[in-house]
Amino acid sequence: MENLKGRKAIITGGGKGLGKATALAFAKEGIDVAITGRNEQNLIETVAELSAFGVKAIYATFDVGNHNEVKIGIQKIISEFKTIDILVNNAGIAAFGSFLEMQPKQWQAIIQTNLMGMYYVTKEVLPYIIENNQGDIFNVSSTAGITGNAGTSAYSASKFAVIGLSESLMKEVRKNNIRVCTLTPSTIASDMSIELGIANRNSEETVLQPADFAELIVAALHLPRRAMLKSASLWSTNP
Question: pTM surpassing 0.70?
Fold first, then answer.
């Protein structure tokens, strides 16, 4: 089992929901964590919670869909951590509506955040992981990236693209001893799902929780370096 203590991780969208749950799970393992997001107050509050575990916890405020902001934010993190071992590309947005009623601007925003944001962050972080000749990258897609449904065209398009990007990157960096895992969870009772009305806070017995998602990532990290979880679909046991 891999010892994770002292590793350095970046989690995008780490101020709440899946990102925050993953950050907390990492801190419990002794991983130093940098979280990113657009809401600075959420980041400040989460960093305080992470620091209570005795790890180094920092944040950078930026929009993953803005390449210049990403460059500045990642450099801020690198200046403090010096290196990065783990990247979790979690930041994402969602909106649903029929193909004709969803406006081009909204479509573009979803693609810009969910796909281009992942590309921008990975582009800035990957050289540091390659330099270590070892590391882990987790790219969060969705079951909506495996099967499209009515009203999900923009979100599904972005998440299908994430799978293509992630699987291509996985084959490209295996030679550098870097593991790239594509995650395709079904509905999780995250802040975003609750805000969209997909899940509710009282659905703990039937719907996946952010902590379940975080446990999967930690389990993948604990695999010996010779083993790589290429992809994983996380579902609740109750339909």
Answer: yes
